[in-house]
Design goal:
Layout (H helix, E strand, L loop, with lengths): L1 H9 L7 H21 L9 H12 L9 E2 H11 L5 H12 L9 E4 L17 E4 L1 H8 L9 E3 L6 E3 L8 H5 L1 E4 L4 E4 L4 H12 L1
Antiparallel strand pairs: 1-3, 2-3, 4-5, 6-7
Helix pairs in contact: 3-4, 4-5
């Protein structure tokens, strides 16, 4: 018995109450999903995967005046540098940023089959091409190199990525967003830019 107690004292096991551990673990998991995947940041209106797609395309120089680049090339950069998740999840997020029936003000300009409003699937990423749209380039990335936002290390500390993009427009209101996290969700409808500006003027006056 004494030997057993001695082993317990020298082990790395930390005694804890089950209900306290469940609370802590659930909260950590919930915050990971909320911050890391499911919900947008109100400052730029983007989920992490969308932000990383746009920043990776900015780093590739895919501005509206440059030629299109294969979506597979962009997905590879996003996965390798910023977002180590499934390639299809990244591509589906990219497709939604192209579709004008999914995003009121598309942030990407696509070339090829990106699906239809009738729920037809897009072509594979090796066939489609993309670049930043004028809205994505000007409203979200035009001030990225002017020390306007903070940068943090990526998942393996080999690259730096922005915490948020320096948005010049309220993208969250313009394009809306839906997402289901742990313990909370969001469903914001899109809005017209002119109406938002009129509302801001009325609020200021």
């Amino acid at each position: 018995m004494a030997k057993q107690l001695n082993l317990q004292e020298n082990s790395n096991v930390i005694p804890t109450a089950l209900h306290l551990e469940m609370q802590r673990s659930y909260l950590e998991y919930a915050m990971s999903v909320i911050v890391g995947r499911a919900l947008p940041d109100v400052r730029d209106g983007l989920k992490p995967v969308h932000r990383r797609i746009l920043y990776a395309m900015h780093e590739l120089g895919l501005t509206p005046d440059r030629p299109y680049r294969k979506c597979a090339r962009v997905v590879g950069d996003v996965l390798g540098k910023y977002h180590p998740h499934g390639d299809q999840a990244v591509y589906e997020a990219m497709v939604r940023l192209v579709q004008d029936f999914s995003t009121r003000y598309p942030l990407l300009d696509g070339h090829g089959n990106f699906g239809s409003v009738d729920n037809d699937p897009p072509a594979a990423m090796r066939y489609t091409e993309t670049r930043l749209s004028p809205v994505g380039a000007q409203a979200l990335l035009s001030e990225i190199g002017e020390a306007t936002v903070d940068f943090i290390d990526n998942f393996d500390s080999s690259q730096q990525e922005p915490v948020v993009l320096p948005a010049q427009l309220p993208i969250l209101l313009l394009n809306g967003c839906s997402g289901i996290a742990v313990g909370m969700a969001t469903n914001i409808p899109p809005h017209n830019l002119v109406e938002i500006v009129d509302g801001l003027i009325a609020l200021i006056d």
